[in-house]
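User: Predict the full complex structure for these chains.
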Amino acid sequence: MKLGFLVGDIVHISGGSNVIIEHAAGLRALGHEVTLIPPTPQEPAGGSWHPKLKGLSIRHLDDCRGERFDFLFATWWLTWFDLHQLEATVYGYFNQSYESRFHPERHYKLQNRATYSLPLFFVTEAHWLERFIAHLQPDARVAYVPNGLSSEYFAGPRNPSARKGPLRVIVEGPWGVPFKGVKEAFELLQMAAHRTPLEVGWLTSYAGGQKPVIGQRPVRIWERIGIHEVAEVLRQHDVMLKLSSVEGMYGPPLEMFSQGGTAITTPVSGCDEYVVHGHNALLAPTSDPLAAVRYLHQLAEHDDVLTMLRTNALATARQWPDWRTATGQFAAALEASARSGYTNAHLRPALASVSAMRTHWLDDVWRFEAEQRSAPHLGEGEWLLMKRYRELKASDTVQSLKRFSPPAVREVLREYAMKVLE
Amino acid sequence: MKSRVPAGLRVAFLTSGPSRPFFPLEAAWADLRCFPVSGGWNRAATEAARFRPHVTYCVLDEHFDAASVTSIPGLRVGLVTRPPHGSSGPWPLRAWREALDGLTWFEPPPEGEPEPLAVLPLPVNRARLTPPDFSLRGVVVPRWAAPSAEVMERLGRMEELVVLEPGGSLDDHLALLDTAAIFLTAGYDATGRLDPLPLQALARGLLVVATTGFPPLWGIEPEDDFLVRPEAKLLAAVDEVRRIPDTARAVRLRAFQKAAEFFDSDDVFARLTVDVLLALDASRLVSSTEPSRLRRVR
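Assistant: Here is the predicted structure of the two-chain assembly.
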């Protein structure tokens, strides 16, 4: 089958891109013709972060016009508005998160909600999203396909490694993205370090020049490393601290599990796919920020609890499907749909209408904003002065003077006033 | 949120108030019993002791008798669910400290009070709740957090309006929430901090429209899970939902889901029970990992 995935930024490190690349590579290996379609040409110069990116066909939107896809998927929510530009038998939405939550601005949230307005062929990786879409769009087809765990990059040890010395904690996530909770993680680690010696590392796609120090020890930073190097870093730690507040179905704790480590994490949406409190990890509610500190103390003090969590975490990762299995489920959903003769090609005009409406609306907003920027800005005091001036100008006295003054005199007075004001 | 609690655990709740909306009355993860203290703490404690619980949650009130609960075997956890000050002054928390192994606060405790085992919002018993019914209309407003009379008057003209009166029973108020689509509250305090109804409305998938946000640490996201509007724009928010009902569908669904993710009492107390064991009886938690003794909840 001919499959297209509309993508945003594919050349920089992100968990969402990793999932798309793995599925695209897997579907290609199964004999499908797969194309990744960014809106504009993208040079995969940074493609080295994911070895499988090199083997994939990447062609930008304009290059694909005139072709017909059997399935065309939007991925990152903004790509939904480009679906109508290409012809497809089935229009789909590979929905990895409720991306409205990435944006504080109301207008983005409303636009994002529009991406759930049509009964597309949805594929999603989290049960909470599956339920959300099914309630929101009852006529849509929704397929749940779990994310895989790479057996190539995250082949795990037989047992958790033996450990001694301070508790080794790895923080995961980029700097400067508030809902990733990285700043908060370092603050809590600093609190914990007052009582419990810690050895802290940071695995990040972007450190923003930060060089955190915990308990007077500098944090060891791994920034923008290739996916094939991640397991080695994780193996050097006992526990991952991951405090994000917005996720679809996150992968890093599962990757940590695969290397014989456990995690302290938040009960964020999607965690229930594999995290079980007190079994393979500890869930620190956001309402109780000190819970993570307590857990760090307890894990440092109870080696038997730490070993239990690490052992169970490793077992969880072993039971989790690899990418071959996960992509097999993706392919099976597509093939079943194709066999049934399903099409939603008739939605193309509706997709075009929603996109056009959004574009017109955005044009108006930007034009309005540009006009606002170029218009002189008056403060409250200036408005008051202006109001008083207009009242004076409209008063009976001034109006009478105007009526009885010859035009030439009024012109001279106006010129004089302008000179004084200038 | 899933937790794994050692199999065969007996858990008791000793509580005076109407506990159904906040605490699980039965659970898959433990043999769970509730002992009402309306007949006195001594009587409830004697009955609870016969149950031989491994963990007992005491929902503290001003009549709590610390001496009586010492007869209950196992770990005893105090839950402080409302400000610990009655008409006769502050509750004797310090005196109770020795009788209780932990105190659970639903917000950070006042300075000088005992350190908590955990801090949690008052959870929601979602056992009987179903996804939101989008065919419902109507607005519910609690009198104690109502907007101005002018807004109320215009609201009444715009939409079917139900006003919750102070003094009404919690069960009656919850039954009225089940008949509406919008819960509107115009308090000055953080929404839901001292009033359990906003969280109950959220859990029922009502569109909560509030003049203040929920406490920031609760993780309830404005615009995605509920709406925050100044009083002057409350009517516009209700009007928008009437004219474009689809804009509220996603918010109401996420409200329902968020309550399940963070505030479901079944999950909250399973997690808390693991924490109690982790803090006070870690060996029981570790020994429970033998496969035959494992039980996965939910």
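The longest strand of chain B covers residues 10-15.
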